[in-house]
Write a structure and sequence with these properties.
About 40% of the residues lie in helices and about 15% in strands. Strand 6, helix 8 and strand 7 form a beta-alpha-beta unit. The longest helix has 21 residues. The protein is elongated.
Length: about 425
């Protein structure tokens, strides 16, 4: 059983050596991988199984070229080594020569390794041991990786250079943890039933519950909290092929991206199943609002509030932090047009269904709700029907998103697609 141990030998030789020894004590085979780029002060004596020269070669560059970039093109050097590491680890993983991976890094080592850690599938044992993982200044960048992947993160508290008793404790814990994860071989645990992904949030939680109940006999249903980060996780895992179907009850991470809301999930939010032959069932839940809290933004000349004149709209103020503004008729038309463009690019359009609850896209846009605006909802429906490829079926249901009738319509659409497989 091979445990990959990645780090900069010219900076962190001592802890890498100790983790190697601890892995060996547990009866595993350490695979030492050097990603040094020439910034450290150590002349390492630890022998790498995969050298930094090999890593650079995998990226199509020489180590000396990397070292020559450090003064003026450091980002380019780091990106090249990152690419080389990705390719080497992919090769090891696909050939079955790797059972787990642990990276020990400071700032540079952490950022070199993130793409590699992200590339490994859900369930594969992967650990980042970093002295910068908790730095607030890099929270946004790190969350793009750590927030949507099952990477175990160890915040080292101390820097992992030299040797002292705290590092000995850290090395022992890290070796025990990564070996234990590898022993379990969790990635080989098969689900009892086929898995279906579903996105949801508080404004459709009853509808989501009803759908789960209808599906639980035949499927394992995995829920994702559609508040931006959860959306990204769903997209990531669907693309990896973990699910037999995707019920995108709340695809609004896409509209939030278009309009600048808090739950934005990026431009590729609707692309997860683009080339997959799996049922993809969408609803318009969440398109009826923009997440724009905290409420104090309205008094601070905030660009979102001023550009879209949110203070003049219907608002639902849950608390000081959470505020939802009603999307306008024009915005709903824009969302529908862009959604149609995304879905029209799908390879298997016969596997896509759009199910629309005509009496309320969410719990707060039903009649009597704070964001009730049937004219804007109807504008979305008309624009979507006009813009979408005819081979993608649209079902309109004369109820709201949280009703039993709507849950049955979503499940019916799912099984209709399953019949096409």
């Amino acid at each position: 059983m091979a445990i990959g141990i990645v780090g900069m030998f010219d900076e962190r030789e001592d802890i890498l050596r100790l983790i190697k020894e601890k892995v060996e004590e547990r009866g595993k085979t350490p695979l030492l991988i050097d990603i040094s780029i020439g910034t450290g002060g150590i002349q390492p004596t630890l022998k790498a199984d995969i050298t930094n020269e090999e890593i650079c070669s995998s990226a199509g560059v020489k180590l000396e070229e990397i070292k020559g970039m450090l003064q003026k093109e450091r980002d380019k050097a780091v990106n090249a080594v990152s690419l080389g590491l990705q390719k080497k680890i992919k090769e090891l993983y696909e050939s079955g020569k790797l059972d787990a991976l642990v990276v020990i890094g400071g700032m540079t080592g952490t950022f070199i390794s993130l793409e590699t850690l992200r590339s490994l599938p859900f369930g594969f044992p992967k650990m980042l041991v970093s002295s910068v993982a908790a730095m607030p200044a890099y929270a946004s960048k790190l969350s793009d990786y750590l927030g949507v992947n099952d990477i175990v993160v160890v915040n080292t508290v101390v820097d992992t250079v030299g040797m002292n008793n705290l590092i000995r404790i850290l090395a022992s814990n890290v070796a025990s943890a990564i070996c234990g994860m590898a022993e379990e071989k969790a990635i080989n645990i098969k689900p009892e039933k086929k898995m279906v992904a579903i996105t949801e949030f508080g404004f459709c939680e009853k509808g989501a519950h009803l759908i789960r109940e209808l599906l639980k006999e035949k499927f394992e249903v995995v829920s994702f909290h559609a508040v931006g980060l959860g959306d990204k996780s769903a997209v990531n895992l669907v693309k990896q092929g973990n699910f037999s179907a995707f019920i995108d009850l709340v695809p609004a991470g896409f509209s939030e991206h278009l309009l600048g809301g808090n739950r934005a999930a990026g431009p590729d939010r609707l692309s997860s199943a683009r080339s997959l032959k799996i049922p993809y069932i969408l609803t318009p839940c969440g398109f009826d609002m923009i997440s724009c809290g905290p409420y104090e933004r309205k008094d601070k000349n905030d660009p979102l509030w001023t550009k879209r004149r949110l203070q003049e709209r219907k608002l639902f103020i849950q608390d000081a932090m959470r505020v939802q503004a009603r999307t306008s008729k024009e915005e709903m038309e824009e969302i529908a047009t862009k959604v149609a463009e995304e879905l029209n690019s799908y390879e298997y359009k016969e596997m896509v269904r759009f199910v629309i609850p005509k009496k309320g896209f969410s719990s707060i846009s039903v009649e009597g709700g704070p964001l009730y605006d049937p004219e804007s909802d109807e504008a979305f429906i008309k624009t979507l029907k006009k813009s979408i490829d005819p081979s993608i079926k649209i079902y309109e249901v004369d109820t709201d998103v949280n009703s039993e009738e709507f849950a049955h319509a979503v499940v019916k659409a799912l099984f209709e697609c399953i019949e096409n497989l």
